[in-house]
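Query structure, 207 tokens:
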């Protein structure tokens, strides 16, 4: 049974055929321009943060942001802000606000954590767009890699997603489909195959 489960997981998520280190190095070998579209997805999810913070009936995001002390500096401040913004976007989505959320691995909340947290940290650290796009690609790869080893969402959650929150227009776009438009720097056998795996729509986003 264990072998069957492993085979099924590999078929659904080809990324698990490789180690995280191999995939990480493959992403670094590709042009940052290949991942620029991820910036748009991250900013789309970040819009939910703004909507939450402006809504007087939704307190979580504001409370967490207010807890960030002016004396906080360095990684602690960056982490606290990323947590506050991620929670705010999640609150906006789960409260039924009319927000568009980019999902990843079949989950809107995964998408919020993946995109909002990284973008928030990148902005706080003053990262360039190229650095941010690459960081988002690495984060997306890690999210999918982890999801390949855990169970999918339950049938109840799928029914809830179909029946509830009519105004939650979550655009489940294919990250991998867009990745096809970016070309690798090198075409070297196994590395080229890993890049092709990264470009498959089934790998970075399960609808």
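Result returned for the query:
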């Amino acid at each position: 049974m264990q072998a069957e489960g492993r085979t099924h997981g590999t078929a659904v998520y080809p990324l698990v055929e490789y180690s995280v280190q191999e995939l990480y190095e493959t992403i670094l070998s590709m042009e940052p321009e290949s991942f620029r579209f991820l910036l748009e997805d991250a900013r789309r999810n970040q819009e939910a943060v703004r909507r939450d913070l402006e809504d007087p009936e939704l307190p979580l995001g504001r409370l967490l942001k207010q807890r960030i002390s002016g004396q906080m500096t360095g990684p602690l401040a960056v982490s606290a802000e990323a947590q506050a913004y991620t929670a705010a976007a999640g609150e906006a989505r789960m409260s039924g606000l009319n927000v568009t959320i980019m999902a990843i691995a079949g989950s809107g909340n995964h998408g919020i954590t993946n995109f909002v947290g990284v973008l928030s940290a990148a902005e706080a650290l003053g990262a360039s767009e190229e650095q941010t796009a690459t960081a988002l690609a690495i984060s997306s790869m890690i999210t999918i890699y982890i999801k390949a080893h855990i169970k999918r969402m339950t049938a109840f959650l799928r029914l809830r997603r179909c029946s509830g929150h009519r105004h939650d227009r979550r655009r489940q776009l294919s990250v991998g489909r867009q990745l096809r438009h970016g070309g690798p720097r090198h075409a070297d056998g196994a590395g080229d195959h890993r890049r092709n795996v990264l470009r498959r729509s089934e790998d970075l986003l399960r609808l």
